[in-house]
Amino acid sequence: MRSSNPVFSRRGFSRDNGYAGFNAAPQAGAPVTGAGPYAQGTAANPYATNPYAQQDTRYGAPQAPARTGAMTIDDVVTRTAITLGTVVLGAALAWALLPVDEANLGKSYGIAIGAALVAFVLSLIQSFKRKPVPALIVSYAAFEGVFLGVISSAVSTYIGPGVVMQAVLGTMCVFAGVLLAYKMRWIRVTRRFYGFVMAAAMGFMLLMVVNLLFAAFGGGDGLGFRSGGLGILFGVIGIILGACFLALDFKQVEDGIAYGAPREESWLAAFGLTMTLVWIYLEMLRLFSILSGDD
């Protein structure tokens, strides 16, 4: 089963080099052991390939023997720090070197949009790769950072200097809250949870695209999803969806470590976590911008 995030582009860990990856399935006819609701099924059971079925009774994580060269939590933390650090560095440089005053606003916005498009293309290229490419992931983070830096600078200049800090703190709080809830097993990532989140995310993205088209061809704010009461509502929904994707990311990391995924797969985990945090930050930025404008 695939874990994903808001851009629907990241695949799960694979079965490579003798390691049982995130998408690994039991052998035909072999019983699925563990304590999950489908624990005693066989390969004939449509849920027999569910990695969540092989779970330990205490911790809910599939068990696998330790392997040399397998991914560890330290690998994930290190790669995630690299990608997020690159995003922050790119944002800081863009904030400093691409002013959003009246004389340079058009140029800065143009560079920001171009950086966003490049980041999107790089994310798609990585998504179709069989293995993670660190250079692609770090480049994605750099261009994403440029986009975020210009947008954040514009919000700070024209809406309020405190909005950006509120969005950063809000993103950190969501991350910490979801991590705590996941570790305490208040959130249980199941196949049903995955299906619900993906369906909700596709509906959300479709509405946003429709709103963008109405805004582009009809002028104004389109269907009103970016301002007022509807904007606040959809901002909150976007943040909740981002939190749900964080839970999927944590489950992917947990299963990848337990199944002995190759160490290089930690770059995929970092890639997914970075994209999800960018999603949450942008929704936070939009929500606090609307709330500041209503004051």
Structure description:
The protein is mainly alpha-helical and 295 residues long. The chain contains seven helices and no strands. It has helices at 73-97, 105-127, 134-158, 161-183, 191-218, 228-258, 266-294. Helix 1 (73-97) crosses helix 3. The radius of gyration is 20 Å and the shape is globular. The termini are far apart. Residues 1-11 and 14-66 have low confidence and may be disordered.
Give the tags:
single chain; 295 residues; mainly alpha; 62% helix; globular; disordered N terminus
Number of strands: 0
The pLDDT mean sits at 78
Q: Characterize the overall form.
A: globular
Question: Oligomer, anyone?
Answer: single chain
Question: How would a crystallographer describe the biggest sheet?
Answer: none
Work out the helicity level. 55-70%
Q: For the record, give the distance between the C-alpha atoms at the N and C termini, rounded to a whole number.
A: 45 Å
What class, by secondary structure content?
mainly alpha
Could you state the order of secondary-structure elements as H and E? HHHHHHH
Instruction: Please count the helical segments.
Output: 7
**Could you tell me the strand content as a percent range?**
under 5%
Radius of gyration: 20 Å
Spans with pLDDT under 50 lasting ≥5 residues? 1-11, 14-66
The gist of it:
The protein has 295 residues and is mainly α. The chain contains 7 helices and no strands. The chain has helices at residues 73-97, 105-127, 134-158, 161-183, 191-218, 228-258, 266-294.
Topology of helices and strands:
Elements: H1 73-97, H2 105-127, H3 134-158, H4 161-183, H5 191-218, H6 228-258, H7 266-294
Helix pairs in contact: 1-3, 1-7, 2-3, 3-4, 3-7, 4-6, 4-7, 5-6, 6-7
